[in-house]
Amino acid sequence: MSKLIELIKQKRIFFDGGTGTVLQSMGIEPGESPEKWNIEHPDRIESLHRAYFEAGSNIVLTNTFGINREKFENYEELIKAGIQCAKKAAEGYDDRFVAFDIGPLGKMLEPLGNLPFEEAVSIFADNVKAAAAGGADLIVIETMNDAYETKAAVIAAKENCNLPVFVTNAYDERGRLMTGATPAAMIAMLEGLGVDALGMNCSFGPDRMLEIIGEFREYASVPLIIKPNAGMPEVVNGETRFSIGPDEFADYMEELARRGGTILGGCCGTTPEHIRKMAERTAAVEYVLPEKKNHTLVSSYTHAVVIGEDPVLIGERINPTGKSKLKEALRNGDMDYILGEAVSQEEAGAHILDVNVGLPEIDEVSMMADAVKEIQSVTALPLQIDTSDPEAMEAGMRVYNGKPLVNSVNGKKKVMEEIFPLVKKYGGTVIALTIGEDGIPETAEGRIEIALDIVKKAEEYGIDKKDIIVDPLAMTISSNQESAAVALEVVKTLKSMGIKTSMGVSNISFGLPKRDIINSVFFANALEQGMSCAIMNPFSASMMDVYHAFRALKGFDKSCMNYIEYAEQRAELTAAPAGTADKKSEKNGSSGSEEDLKYCVIKGFRDKAVKAASLILKMEKPLDIINNSIVPALNEIGRDFEEKRAYLPQLLMSAEAASAAFDVIKTALPSAGEDSGKSVILATVKGDIHDIGKNIVKVLLQSYGFNVIDLGKDVAPETIRDCALEKQCSLVGLSALMTTTVPSMEETIKLIRETGRDIKVMVGGAVLTEEYANMIGADRYSPDAMDAVRYTEMHYGMADRD
Q1: Which tens digits make up the pLDDT trace of 34-58?
Q2: Are the CB atoms for 382 and 405 separated by under 8 Å?
Q3: What does each C-alpha distance from 373 to 171, 378, 398, 541, 751 come to in angstroms?
């Protein structure tokens, strides 16, 4: 165990503050790369770090936030030079540590962007190798606003060094990452991956972090890092300043320490004086490490599902056993059918989706990885990765965006030796089947003994009891009428021991007629005995009746509101598990109706949207299809996004489906070209290589039919101005992530204004606010991509489209 980790157990540790803010005061030019100063001005970088050490920082971040092989050919030299600057600054101090700083790559990962997951892992891995060789004491992954990129960075760190790994993410005003993850979702994933500390940084000041820290304190078991900005930026006498001074910052940080902040520091706008005041103010606050939490969590890229008293439903439909159409889809690589099953089960009320793609005649390893990625592109539900093949299990777990449910392990030594290392490496909550070396015991006592042996063995791998869910195995009563009683006894006994349980409920009735009758009564009995979650058919009306009634009767359904809503929709459910469910999941996209196309766009079914558009085009005018189907669908998902009912991944997948359908329809429209009068220039400003926000806006604008002239990233002000004049474009969108590049944005706006043309400028980025945007002369501050679309529609007189 490292000296740093031991120190954290004893006392509160302090990070440094903002690097870019101090470099600006040292004279760095707008758009100049801060990282190059590691070689060009090492004395200044060393003095920056020393100032923070003198102020009380125990850990300083190397000046490497934006370094990677994609941006710098000499990335290794820059990394090692940056580490040396910090190490020199630490000389003469006790308990001082150098953290290698890893920031976002500035690209969206597939399927939302073009960067493959493994390529992202590789880029981060090269950085980690250079940092370990250069003598860094720990790895800090910070300012990540996407769960998937965060996972790629953590895997790279874990696979390529033995240093402690800390992670802080950038949350928005809703307490979510840009791609939708809550703190609970990130805690589930990151603790599963084995990080040493986690928390939040950037985005806003300490006042807003006070609103979010409660969720961290409720779920996190590892030390909690808090690194806010010094408020938000503002322009005072032509200079960029932040709204919260050192004393006020220290007041907030004292309260954050009282509420559970373990490792404190600052981000944009914080100076050595902010850190000094913070260290002084928090000295009297009692230091308490987070308690070990007992929550059983699985998560997706948006949210965590707590498996406990309130029962959880696991949709069983993506499993080829007994499902001829799914088998055919798997053989043919028909992912549309599988995605339809996923979305339909979500709509029916499932909380988690089982994913089993095992057929002897297909490559299960590649199919599992593909299925996990594709399903996560259309639904935000967590997944249960279900396979008996350890290689397929690893393939699915590695690419999974979140902390999965893993089905399964059992009491056989060989199986535990294969599965538990995967769970330890990638994180997961694992289903434990009560099967021993001699098979399935007939008695409840025998199955309980196997369950306890599995829990004990898991602990040897560092897997906590809370991450084991035991399946007592519901065997059919058609061959043994004691089967139900045995399974229920196991559930009851394990619940008294604090062990969660799950069962494949429908197995109890195998071989019997009218199976739903048996299934629903057994389901009710199992819930009454304390079963935590059930693998079941969410299209079964009788099963869903039991679920909603049980929750209402047990007090899990506040004011019975969910039951009332369910009862009103009850007539829409069917009890035919095979044929009807298959028809339900196949709907939309095949009949060629406008409603089909609208549904496909909303759900993000790209291929189905293309098919639907092609069929409708034979019957409807192109502009009618756009106005009656595509634009209303985009507006509906856009409103859901704006009202926080949908998140960025759903929005982008819908935009991709709309763009694909629009490409089909455009073949029947006259060519408009770039001079159609409805063009938008987009650019990430000089010195900034982070173009995620710009690319999101681009996808959405194109899906609405606007022509986008994308100038890329790190674009000089003169280039943007000249393009606007050459293309006679009346709207420009500018993006910036880094504090040091905002002056380039201001310079760009100034040059555009000097043209005398009526060119509107909209701006966005993590470091901006509406007030700041107004101060630098922008016409519009867009806090998210949908706002940029709305402003563009308004600019071109199209705001009333619906």
Answers
A1: 999 999 999 999 999 999 999 999 9
A2: yes
A3: 24, 9, 10, 30, 44
